Amino acid sequence: MAENKTQATETNVDDFLATVEPAQRREDARAICAMLARVTGEPARMWGAAIVGFGTYHYRYDSGREGDMCRIGFSPRKAQTVLYIPGGFSRYETLLARLGKHSTGAGCLYIKKLGEVDAGVLETLASEAFDYMRTAYPGVSGQ
């Protein structure tokens, strides 16, 4: 079976964040990183080339594919910041309705500017998503 492409690396998170462009996205990324560290109590760690993740869990699909991934994370892309919110968005409908300007995809929350969303609602959403992952996938923690 092929090895998972996205794995934890030893890349320094602060060094990675310093390279994010444009400058506003870099500042947003630093704020999101600090918020996720606070909510999760886990250290930030790079996953692959561009995902900043918090905590670790082990998954195993019915197909037999398995691996490790961060419990919650984000990637500051050039056009927008992507937050990887596990567990599906239906459980967060009330929060998403109050969040502000955003869009969603399969497990991804897209934000163009952090200033366009309610930071308190985003923090609550991140906290609830991380708690969900701790319950759904107990065991492996921050590394």
Classify the helix fraction into a percent range: 25-40%
The major pleated sheet works out as: 6 strands, antiparallel
Please tell me what the overall shape is. globular
The total beta strand count reads 8
Task: Report the total helices.
Answer: 4
CATH C-level class: Alpha Beta
Strand order of the largest sheet: 1-2-5-6-8-7
- Pick out the low-confidence regions: none
The end-to-end distance, rounded to whole angstroms, is 25 Å
CATH architecture: Alpha-Beta Complex
Helix and strand composition category: alpha+beta
| Strand portion | 15-25%
CATH topology-level fold name: Aspartate Aminotransferase, domain 1
Summarize model confidence as the mean pLDDT. 91
Number of domains: 1
* Quaternary structure annotation: single chain
Gyration radius over CA: 15 Å
SSE pattern? HHEEEEEEHEEH
Organism: Sphingomonas hylomeconis
Pfam family, one: DUF1801
InterPro entries: YdhG-like
Domain YdhG-like: 25-129
